Amino acid sequence: MADTPLRLDCRCFGTVQGLDVDCYTLARAGGVEISILSYGGIIQSIRVPDRTGASENVVLGFSDLDDYLAAGDAYLGAIVGRCANRIAHGQFTLDGRAHRLTCNEGDNHLHGGHAGFDKKVWRARPRVGEREIAVVLSHTSEDGDEGYPGKVDVEVVYSLTLDNVVRIECRAVTTHATVVNLTSHSLFNLAGEGRGTVLEHELWLEADRYTLVDPELIPTGELAPVAGTPMDFRRPAEIGSRIGETFDQLFLGSGYDHNFALDARDPSAPAARLADGRSGRVLEISTTEPGIQLYTGGKLDGTLVGARGSVYQRFAGVALETQRFPDAPNHAHFPSAVLRPGERYESTTELRFSSV
Questions:
Q1: Residue 34 in contact with residue 160, Cβ under 8 Å?
Q2: What span, in angstroms and rounded, lies between the C-alpha atoms of 275 and 205?
Q3: H helix or E strand, kind and range, residue 67
């Protein structure tokens, strides 16, 4: 590594469940620096230079492990699964057999249940190459875990390239037919963690349709056009520019908490672009996934205090979660989340940071 500007460090972050939790830091000199925990696969920080070259962390999170444990189901920066997002009534039918999952959000299943992947200590190992460095996380979810069928072996690879690209690759195999949908639940504030709200961030989404939700934020099954609604980000718009409009979907989501359909597109091309005019920082996201969940932190209520010591109020961060659609196992016309023996679940998302 002496001849490259890339650096990989590891330090102990604490212990949980009798297991050591490590913090891996991947850094490019003068560029992006990302820290990842083996607990929950959490992105603990991403430091990015602004237009003046000053670096700052741009994701919500905490400085010590106890705060993550105390935060419960905040999911800040975590890998969520076995099935991300919501499954109605915690149940689905696969190959004629009904499966009942644990319900941890009222009558529904959310982000893998009471003890999903966000609450596991993952096995971790570094990987060093000439043009990128990475940490490889692995976890085994046993048959019956939170009600899911099949033993599933999961691998998540976080990479940082010489081009300041953060790549998140998720893979899984199973012993029995099951459902798998993994995503990273980072909440971004490109002005800097704890620096106000993201309402002035400008957002662009390459999506013509979104999934309508009911009062419990479960998709109705209808893919509605964004045209003529506050859900239309096909032209860049500030997140807060229409968030207060009288529109039932915004009321139900306490702002935006909706899946957008990316439809047929080049997975290497950007699907979303987030920009902060104050700092000049820009984030472009490309993904192989068919959907992206826009969540504007409407449930943040001031009970969490972040790494900077700032209280996380409503709209303190925005998540752009690449994924299969919510409640996909119960909607045959949604992109499938089913994984069978002999198949391989694969998902790749890239975060490209820059400044203007």
A1: yes
A2: 12
A3: helix 65-70
DSSP 336: P
Q: 207-217, pLDDT tens digit by residue?
A: 999 999 999 99
pLDDT of residue 27: 98
CA gap 160, 168 in Å, rounded = 9
Of 109, 111, 185, 331, the catalytic one is 185
- Report which DSSP code applies to 224: E
* Domain range annotation of the chain: 6-355
Residue 2: band (very low, low, confident or very high) from pLDDT cuts 50, 70, 90: low
Catalytic (active site) residue 89: no
Task: Out of 2.60.120.830, 2.70.98.10, 3.40.50.2000, 3.40.50.720, select the CATH number for domain 6-355.
Answer: 2.70.98.10
Q: Distance between terminal CA atoms of the chain?
A: 30
Positive/negative CA dihedral, 287, 290, 296, 301? negative
Query: How far apart are alpha carbons 295 and 312 in whole angstroms?
Result: 15
pLDDT in tens, 212-234: 999 999 999 999 999 999 999 99
Nearest to 323 by CA among 302, 349, 355, 303: 349
HSE-up of residue 29 (Cα within 13 Å, Cβ side): 7
- The catalytic position among 56, 206, 284, 321 is 321
DSSP 251: H
| Residue 1 pLDDT greater than 50, yes or no | no
**Catalytic residue status for 216:** no
CA 148 to each of CA 88, 124, 270: distance values in angstroms, whole numbers, following the listed order: 14, 24, 33
Name the amino acid, one letter, at 242.
Answer: R
Cα–Cα distance for residue pair 219/310, rounded to 1 Å? 34
Distance CA 331, CA 7 (A): 44
Could you read off the pLDDT of 245-270 as tens digits, one per residue?
Answer: 999 999 999 999 999 999 878 889 99
